[in-house]
Amino acid sequence: MFVVTRDEEKCEGCGECVEACPAGILELVDGKVRITDETACLGCETCVTVCPTGAITIQEV
Ligand code: SF4
Ligand code: SF4
């Protein structure tokens, strides 16, 4: 499975990752990204690619 880590300091709330995630597990809450269901992460790293600030990292465990 994959662990999705977000750096709230770096997140600018642009929503790019929310739109791009094929699993639909990212959302914005109060202008910051939040992971709704980490167990459903596909590990595709699309969120990492689209994030302009490098706020998300994916780790396979
Ligand atoms: S790695 Fe893919 S499935 Fe997982 S949170 Fe990022 S975009 Fe969504
Ligand atoms: S793409 Fe990056 S900066 Fe934009 S909402 Fe997602 S984590 Fe935050």
Automatic annotation (TrEMBL):
Keywords assigned by UniProt?
4Fe-4S, Electron transport, Iron, Iron-sulfur, Metal-binding, Repeat, Transport
Protein's name according to its UniProt entry = 4Fe-4S dicluster protein
Q: Organism's domain of life?
A: Bacteria
Q: Where is the signal peptide?
A: none
The chain positions of domain 4Fe-4S ferredoxin-type read 2-31, 32-61
GO molecular function of the protein, one example? 4 iron, 4 sulfur cluster binding
Entry's PROSITE patterns? 4FE4S_FER_1, 4FE4S_FER_2
